[in-house]
C-alpha cells in the first residue's frame, strides 16, 4: 500500500523519526516555555546552554572518565549552576524592563559562549561514544530503530510530563505560578520569591543541558550545535503559545513529525517548514495554539 | 668625494630607482591579500583560521618582503552566505585596495566572488571551493582553482568504488551549488561505468539530523550511499549512518568529500575503512611533515587539510608571479601564473591550465583502523596515486569559454 507514492511502511519509519526529533524540540521548548512563563525572559542563550550540556558530558567522559548516566545527572546541575549565576548577576536587573532587553542580553551571551567554544574546540566537533548499553537496534519490521533513539523518546516523555505535573499540579508549582502573577503578595506570605525565580531559571537551563547530554551520542558535540536549533525551538514555543508548558510539549512533538514528513515529500523545504507553520498560526491565532489571549 | 664613494652613491641611487620602478607597477606599492573564509560555521576547521595561517606562512617563505615589496594580509568571515561574501569582496576591491582574494570554502560564495573578481580585474585563488564549474562554464581569466574539484572527487572516490562493484547508488546531497555539482559529476562517473542511480535526496546545508534521509537511502536498497556533502554535514551523516545500521545492513557509504579534520572529528572507530580522495596529505614526505609541524601550533594543533595546503601553495605561486611581472594587474598576473610552472614543497611541480585549473596528482586513500594508527592525525594510508594528467577533467570537456 502506498500513500502519495510512499510505501506505508516507510511512512511509519518517517513518523517515528519525526517523533524522535520532536522529543528534542519538546525538551528544549519546555525549558524556554518555563523560563518565559515564570520569568518573562526570552532566553536566547538556550541553544548555547544545550551545547554546553553536551560539551559538559564530553568533558566529563574525556577528562574524568565519568560516563553517560552520571553525566545525565551532573551536567544539568553544573550548567544549571552557571544559569543561576547569569540570573543573579545579569538577568535579575532586567525584569522591570521590556522583553527586548532580556532577549538582546541572552542573544549576546549565546554568541559569546559559542564564539569562545569555537575558539577552543574548533567547529567540526568532538565524538561522544554511544553508551554500550544502547548499542544495536530494534528491528521493527518497517524500520531499524536504534535503541538509543527509543530511549530518547521515553526519557523525553518522562521529563516533559514530570515538569508539566510539577508546575501545573503541585503546591510548589502553584507558588511559582502565583509568584509570576503577583510577586509582592506571594512574598508577603513568607515565600522567598527572588530565590524561587533564580532556581526556576537554573531549572530551565538544566533542562537545556539535559537535552544536550542526550544529543551528544547522536550528533557531533560541536559549538554550533545549538545555534540553528534555538531558532527552530523558539518557533515551536511561539506556535505552542508563549509560556504554555503543555503547548510547548505537544507542539514540539507535533512539529517534529511535520518536519519529518517534509523530509520525505519535499526535503529542500525541511528547514523552512516550521516557520511556514509559525506564520500561519500567528496569522490565525496570534497567541499560539495553546496560548491565552491577554 | 672620492671616486669610490661616488660609485657607491651611484649604485645606491640606481638601486633605489629600479626599486621605485619595480613598485610603481604594484598598485599603491602594496600587495594586499584577503583571505575570505568560513570563520564560524561548519567549514571553519578545514579552512578558517588555518587558511589565514597558511597564507601568512607563504608570505614569509616567499621572502618577497625582503626584496622591497610590501605585503599585507587581511581576513574575513563569509558565513557561508553568498550575499555576505559578495559584499565583503566588493568592499575589499573597491575601498580596501585588496589585490587578491584567497580560499573561499563554499562553492556558492566562490561562484559569486569569481564573477566580482572578473568584473574588477583582480585575482581569485580558489582553494576551498569544490564546484568544477569554476573552471567549466563559469571559468574566468582572473581565477585559479588550486586544490581539488568535484570532477576529481567523483572520478577518484566514485570511480574507485564503482569499479570495485558498487554499481547502484543513492545520493544524499547538500542542497546548494557544491552538492549539486558533486552529485552531477559523480552520477556521470557511475553511469559511465555501467552503474545505476536509484534515488537521491537533497538536504539543506548544515542539517543536524540525517536519520530521515538515511531511512530513505536504506529503503532504496542501493549498494552505495553517496554523501555529496562536506564538513559537519558529512560527519553527522556518517555518524548517524552507523547508528541506523546502514553498513551492517549491507550498504556502503561513499564520503565523496572527506577532509582530514572530518576524520579527526569522527574518530577512527567510526571513520575506519572510508575511501577518500585528497590532493595533499600532511604525512606524505619530509617536506609536507616539516610544513605541518610549523602549521599545527598556529591552528589549535589541527594538521593541515588539502585546503590549507592549497592556500599556502597558491599564495606562494601568486607572489612569485607578481615579483616576476613587477605588476599586480589581475589579468596579467594570472596569465603569468599560467605561464610559469608551479613548484612548491606541498604539491611538487605542476602547471596551471588555460581554464584556470591547477594540475597535480591526487591520492586515493583509506582511513586506517584504530590499531594501525600510531597516534593523533595518523589517519590515512595511500591506496593509489592518480597521476596529474588523469586527476582532473580533460580541458576539452569543461565547456570553458576561455578554451577555444
Summarize the SSE layout with pairings:
The complex is a heterodimer of chains A (294) and B (404).
Chain A: E1 2-3, E2 6-7, H1 8-39, H2 46-64, H3 68-89, H4 99-121, E3 137-139, E4 144-146, H5 147-169, H6 171-181, H7 183-188, H8 193-215, H9 227-240, H10 245-265, H11 273-284
Antiparallel strand pairs in A: 1-2, 3-4
Helix pairs in contact in A: 1-5, 1-8, 1-9, 1-10, 2-3, 2-4, 2-8, 3-8, 5-6, 9-10, 9-11
Chain B: H1 3-24, E1 31-37, H2 48-62, E2 71-77, H3 82-94, E3 100-103, H4 107-119, E4 123-126, E5 143-145, H5 150-163, E6 168-174, H6 177-192, E7 196-203, H7 211-220, E8 224-228, H8 232-243, E9 252-255, H9 260-266, H10 268-271, E10 275-278, H11 286-295, H12 306-325, H13 330-339, E11 342-344, E12 348-352, E13 358-359, E14 362-367, E15 380-386, H14 388-391
Parallel strand pairs in B: 1-2, 1-3, 3-4, 4-5, 6-7, 6-8, 8-9
Antiparallel strand pairs in B: 10-14, 11-12, 12-13, 14-15
Amino acid at each position: 500500500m502506498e500513500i502519495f507514492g510512499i510505501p506505508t511502511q516507510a511512512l511509519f519509519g518517517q513518523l517515528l523519526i519525526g517523533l524522535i526529533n520532536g522529543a528534542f524540540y519538546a525538551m528544549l521548548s519546555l525549558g524556554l516555555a518555563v523560563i518565559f512563563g515564570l520569568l518573562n525572559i526570552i532566553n536566547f542563550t538556550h541553544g548555547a546552554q544545550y551545547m554546553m550540556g553536551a560539551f559538559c558530558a564530553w568533558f566529563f567522559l574525556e577528562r574524568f572518565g565519568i560516563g553517560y548516566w552520571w553525566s545525565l545527572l551532573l551536567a544539568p546541575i553544573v550548567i544549571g549552576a552557571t544559569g543561576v549565576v547569569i540570573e543573579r548577576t545579569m538577568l535579575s536587573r532586567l525584569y522591570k524592563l521590556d522583553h527586548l532587553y532580556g532577549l538582546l542580553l541572552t542573544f549576546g551571551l549565546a554568541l559569546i559562549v559559542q564564539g569562545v567554544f569555537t575558539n577552543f574546540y574548533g567547529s567540526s566537533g568532538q565524538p561522544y561514544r554511544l553508551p554500550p548499553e544502547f548499542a544495536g537496534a530494534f528491528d521493527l519490521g518497517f524500520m531499524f530503530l536504534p535503541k538509543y533513539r527509543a530511549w530518547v523518546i521515553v526519557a523525553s516523555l518522562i521529563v516533559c510530563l514530570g515538569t508539566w505535573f510539577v508546575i501545573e499540579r503541585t503546591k510548589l508549582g502553584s507558588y511559582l505560578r502565583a509568584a509570576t502573577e503577583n510577586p509582592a503578595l506571594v512574598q508577603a506570605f513568607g515565600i522567598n520569591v527572588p530565590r524561587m525565580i533564580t532556581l526556576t531559571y537554573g531549572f530551565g537551563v538544566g533542562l537545556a543541558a539535559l537535552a544536550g547530554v542526550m544529543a551528544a551520542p547522536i550528533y557531533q558535540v560541536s559549538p554550533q550545535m545549538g545555534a540553528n536549533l534555538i531558532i527552530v525551538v523558539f518557533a515551536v514555543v511561539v506556535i505552542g503559545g508563549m509560556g504554555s508548558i503543555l503547548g510547548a510539549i505537544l507542539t514540539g512533538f507535533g512539529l517534529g513529525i511535520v518536519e519529518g514528513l517534509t523530509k520525505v515529500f519535499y526535503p529542500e523545504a525541511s528547514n523552512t517548514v516550521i516557520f511556514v507553520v509559525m506564520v500561519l498560526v500567528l496569522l490565525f491565532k496570534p497567541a499560539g495554539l495553546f496560548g491565552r489571549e491577554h | 668625494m672620492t671616486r669610490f664613494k661616488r660609485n657607491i652613491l651611484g649604485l645606491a641611487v640606481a638601486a633605489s630607482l629600479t626599486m621605485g620602478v619595480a613598485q610603481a607597477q604594484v598598485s599603491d606599492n602594496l600587495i594586499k591579500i584577503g583571505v575570505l573564509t568560513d570563520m564560524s560555521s561548519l567549514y571553519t576547521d578545514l579552512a578558517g583560521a588555518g587558511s589565514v595561517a597558511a597564507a601568512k606562512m607563504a608570505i614569509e617563505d616567499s621572502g618577497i618582503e625582503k626584496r622591497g615589496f610590501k605585503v599585507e594580509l587581511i581576513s574575513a568571515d563569509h558565513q557561508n552566505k553568498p550575499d555576505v561574501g559578495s559584499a565583503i569582496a566588493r568592499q575589499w576591491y573597491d575601498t580596501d585596495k585588496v589585490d587578491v582574494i584567497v580560499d573561499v570554502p563554499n562553492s556558492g560564495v566562490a561562484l559569486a566572488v569569481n564573477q566580482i573578481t572578473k568584473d574588477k580585474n583582480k585575482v581569485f585563488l580558489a582553494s576551498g571551493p569544490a564546484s568544477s564549474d569554476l573552471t567549466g562554464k563559469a571559468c574566468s581569466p582572473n581565477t585559479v582553482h588550486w586544490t581539488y574539484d568535484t570532477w576529481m572527487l567523483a572520478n577518484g572516490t566514485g570511480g574507485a568504488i564503482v569499479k570495485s562493484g558498487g554499481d547502484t547508488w543513492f545520493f544524499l546531497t547538500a542542497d546548494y551549488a557544491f552538492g549539486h555539482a558533486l552529485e552531477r559529476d559523480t552520477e556521470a562517473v557511475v553511469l559511465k561505468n555501467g552503474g545505476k542511480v536509484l534515488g537521491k535526496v537533497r538536504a539543506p546545508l548544515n542539517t543536524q539530523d540525517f536519520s530521515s534521509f538515511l531511512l530513505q537511502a536504506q529503503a532504496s536498497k542501493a549498494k552505495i550511499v553517496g554523501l555529496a556533502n562536506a564538513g559537519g554535514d558529512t560527519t553527522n551523516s556518517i555518524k548517524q549512518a552507523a547508528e541506523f545500521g546502514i553498513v551492517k545492513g549491507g550498504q556502503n557509504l561513499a564520503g565523496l568529500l572527506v577532509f582530514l579534520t572530518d576524520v579527526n572529528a569522527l574518530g577512527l572507530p567510526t571513520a575506519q575503512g572510508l575511501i577518500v580522495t585528497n590532493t595533499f596529505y600532511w604525512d606524505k614526505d619530509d617536506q609536507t611533515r616539516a610544513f605541518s609541524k610549523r602549521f599545527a601550533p598556529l591552528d589549535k594543533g589541527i594538521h593541515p587539510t588539502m585546503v590549507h595546503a592549497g592556500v599556502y601553495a597558491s599564495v606562494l605561486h601568486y607572489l612569485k608571479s607578481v615579483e616576476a611581472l613587477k605588476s599586480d594587474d589581475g589579468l596579467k598576473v594570472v596569465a603569468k601564473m599560467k605561464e610559469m610552472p608551479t613548484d612548491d614543497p606541498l604539491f611538487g611541480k605542476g602547471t596551471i591550465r588555460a581554464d584556470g585549473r591547477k594540475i597535480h596528482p591526487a591520492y586515493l586513500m583509506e582511513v586506517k583502523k584504530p590499531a594501525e594508527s600510531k597516534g593523533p592525525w595518523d589517519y590515512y594510508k595511500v591506496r593509489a596515486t592518480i597521476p596529474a594528467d588523469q586527476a582532473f577533467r580533460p580541458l576539452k570537456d569543461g565547456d570553458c569559454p576561455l578554451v577555444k
